[in-house]
Amino acid sequence: MLQKRTEILLSSIYFWLFIYLITVVIQFIYVNYMASVDESVFGVIGRGILEGKLPYGDFFDHKPPGIHLVAASVLWMSDSLLALRISVIITNLISSLLIILLVNEVFPDNRRMGMIAAILFLGSTVFYEGIWFLTEVFMVPFLLLFALFFLRGVRKGDNRFLFIAGISLGIASQFKQVGILYAIPVPFIFLYLYLGERSKDAFSKNLFSFVAFALGFLTVMILVMATFAGLGLFDEYYINVWSSNSNYVVGPSIGIFENIKGYYVNDLAYLAIWVPIIVGCGLLGRDILKRNISSKNRVLGFILLLALVGLSTLLIRQYKHYMIVALPFLAVFCAYYMDDWLDFKITWGNLKKAAVLILSFVIIFQFVFFVGKPFKTTAYRQEMIDYIKEHVDENRTIMMLKDPTYYFTCDLPPPDENIYYFSVNHNLTWNAQSLINTTQQGYVQYVIIGKGYADTIRETPDHPLNPVILYLDANYMTYEYYEGYNVYEV
Fold it and tell me: What order of strands is seen across the sheet that includes strand 485-489?
């Protein structure tokens, strides 16, 4: 009787819809959390666009222009951090619906699998910073459109869909440069399809299909470059977006396995997605070794390939939000095996209940562990915001040497084109002497830096900011204010 009831529950679309709605509600927990560094940068540039300024001309940033245009559009409707966060939730919901469409495209008439994938994706956003206004969040819908139209174009042999797939990937690349990586496997996929038929017709068909995709992709890339060339900013665009990233050294790369270990709380908490993925990879690998290359396994292999492309970025820099571009494809891959297991005829009903408990654990853990976290740091930062707003004179501003969040939250412009002073733009748009000169011009009233970061700079003579900190220490009054900030009044 218990097993029968469990089977009825797990086969009900309303049950999965209920879990889905819970994950939607969780998205709203973080809307009032203090702005992150990246969010603040995009918010400042978005405001600047509304004032007639241009990215790369009036501001330095090493991200492509897509995120700046979205920020400007959102802030035009409502100039607030809340508006940015609401746009993230809407985008995540759109992505979850596209995941359902993608599943329906490759596994039609299986609504439960699509719902499971959408639930796993939405649940993962909390663990991997997908609730902030970040480039990866806005890449995901276009990556899903790329996957959806690519599979549809290949299945139907319709190059119009492949052209749209190329456009979608081109747009995704305008949010973050790693979107280009997803284009690398495409010619090899068409080569694989040709080798499966080995005929003159197959060669021309796959060649034209690849050309259709490439035309769509290049159309977007060329239009963006032509736009900045027309604005007289092509060199600035190229330097900011494409060449400056070679200067960006966050620190020694710790590698993907150390990275996973470093975020074990996130990974262990989200076993609902990782366990089926690991087992699923084993099952897919077993089928491939047995030469069981069915259409189902081809699709699963393609989905897994897209996930691996996203995961490969962790080999470059280790940030949790780098996972976001892989999560929708991991969720689809995982959902296939979870759905299959839930239909497996067993005599021990507790196995099925375990699947429900894993999903429930995800939801409960999010509430218990994460609900209070956003509000612990918001309180003292709000005090700092109030202090800055009260004490900064009209027509003057602040200089943030690392954390640019207060430019956005206090509605103050940066003192120059640099919203941040990192290695990515060092010696391109700033150096130690230029910062010292800026503090001497009377426009900057306060220079603010985290105390721990300032101490590290003092102890590192070859740090690019070391001369700046030593200059500030020697010439201006400093005092510690609110949880470890050094504030220099200049």
Answer: 397-400, 444-450, 485-489, 477-481
Six-digit token pair at 173?
A: 């690349």
Give, rounded to a whole angstrom, the gap between the first and last alpha carbons of the chain. 76
In the numeric block, which tokens belong to residue 201?
Answer: 């017709």
CA distance 308 to 378: 35
And the tokens for 11? 């086969």
Give 270-314 as a 3 state SS string.
Answer: CHHHHHHHHHHHHHHHHHHHCCCCCHHHHHHHHHHHHHHHHHHHH
Tens-place pLDDT, residues 381-410: 677 788 888 888 888 999 998 888 889 988
Among candidates 342, 287, 305, which has minimal Cα distance to 12?
Answer: 342
Inform me whether the pLDDT recorded for 355 exceeds 60. no
Q: Which one is predicted more confidently, 300 or 461?
A: 461
The per-residue b/e assignment along 225-249, b for 16 or more CB within 10 angstroms, e otherwise, is: eeebeeeebeebbebbbeebeeeee
Query: Would you state the structure tokens that stand for residue 488, as one six-digit string?
Result: 């220099």
